[in-house]
Amino acid sequence: MSGTDRVRTHGPAGSWRTIDAHIHLDKYEGEELDKVLAELGRADGVEAVVAVSVDLASCEANRLLAARHPGRICAAYGFHPEQPIPPEEEMDRLFAWIEANAETATAIGEVGLPYYKQQEAKEKGERFDVEPYVELLDRFAALAVKLDLPMALHCVYDDAPIACDVLEKRGVAKAHFHWYKGDVRTTERIAANGWFISLTPDVLYEPEIRKLAADFPLSQLMTETDGPWPYEGKFSGRMTVPSMTRDVAAEIAAIRGMDTGEAARILFDNAKRIYGMKAAD
Q1: What's the pLDDT score for residue 263?
Q2: Cα separation of 11 and 175, whole Å?
Q3: What DSSP string runs through the chain?
Q4: How far apart are CA 4 and CA 16, in angstroms?
Q5: Phi, psi (deg, nearest 5) at residue 45
Q6: Which of 7, 153, 155, 193 is the most buried (most CB within 10 A)?
Q7: Mean pLDDT across the stretch 63-70?
Q8: C-alpha to C-alpha distance for 132 and 223, rounded to whole angstroms
Q9: What are phi and psi of 71, to 5 degrees?
């Protein structure tokens, strides 16, 4: 990585950059999308975003956005697990599309396991078969290995160790557990495998996330928003935008007792490293 790719830690106060490692960019429209795009590429702001997809239409939308903003928007292609799995022929079309567009992909994602969907079923006293989702995750893991791409994962709490089983079996080298939450043993397992997690703006007020910010290896941490998902605390009532990752980076630095610029540089470099980001034109 060249010196121009690194966060400037000795310039004016606040002159460091961040990367939003997980955002649903295709869910923004009109003036809201314009506002998000206007934040990208500023020397003292957000360098780039990883735009994750939820289905085939979402993949295509993010592909087009990335083509219009090379180096600023990095597209990830996948299928969000918190929804019913469509018929096999529809999933086959998605996998074929991803392979055909692999050269434009930064990652396979968002993919994973449906923790919240399972919880909803449990609360209703309904049976939920998670096995088809495990099989689908395994198929995505195999594709990631085949295409030599990192995985952007939605796998939290009880689903996280299941995901670890799948990734270890397939030999996935680069994995990113976004907005991760889980037990200590699984957290240590993720760290030991060299995989990454990212923290959202709720690191400013959620004790569980603040503990991760303090304890997880800094060399495997990143910042994200999961926008347009809304937040509480100082962000209550505000539209979620990539520049909120600056708040995340500053809070991680404060929790760890570090210089903000130095912590931001490490978080920034982590995202560049796992996602193989190039400098924008």
Answers
A1: 98
A2: 33
A3: --GGGS--SSSSTT---EEEEEE-GGG--HHHHHHHHHTBT-TTSEEEEEE--SSHHHHHHHHHHHHHSTTTEEEEE---SSS----HHHHHHHHHHHHHTGGG-SEEEEEE--HHHHHHHHHTT-----HHHHHHHHHHHHHHHHHT--EEEE--TTHHHHHHHHHHHHT---EEEET----HHHHHHHHHTT-EEEE-GGGGT-HHHHHHHHHS-GGGEEE---TT----GGGTTSPP-TTHHHHHHHHHHHHHT--HHHHHHHHHHHHHHHHTPPPP-
A4: 12
A5: -135, -130
A6: 153
A7: 97
A8: 31
A9: 85, -15
| Average pLDDT value for residue range 102-122 | 97
Handedness of CA 200, 205, 206, 211 (dihedral sign): positive
For the record, the structure tokens of 90 come out as: 């529809």
Q: Is the bond preceding 110 in cis, omega lying within 30 degrees of 0? A: yes
pTM above 0.90, yes or no: yes
Contact (Cβ atoms closer than 8 angstroms) between residue 223 and residue 20: yes
Structure tokens belonging to residue 155: 């796998």
Q: Summarize pLDDT for 15-36 with one digit per residue, the tens.
A: 799 999 999 999 999 999 999 9
Question: Three-class SS string for 85-117?
Answer: CCCHHHHHHHHHHHHHCHHHCCEEEEEECCHHH
Q: Which residue has the tokens 């210089």?
A: 259
CB 223 within 8 A of CB 199: yes
Tokens representing residue 252 in the block: 């991680």
Q: Which one-letter amino acid corresponds to residue 136?
A: L
Angstrom CA distances, 80 to 109, 142, 212, 264, stand at 8, 17, 24, 29
Q: Which residue has the tokens 């003292």?
A: 44
How does residue 158 score in pLDDT terms, banded at 50, 70 and 90?
Answer: very high
What pLDDT is recorded for position 177?
A: 98
Q: Which two tokens stand for residue 221?
A: 């941490």
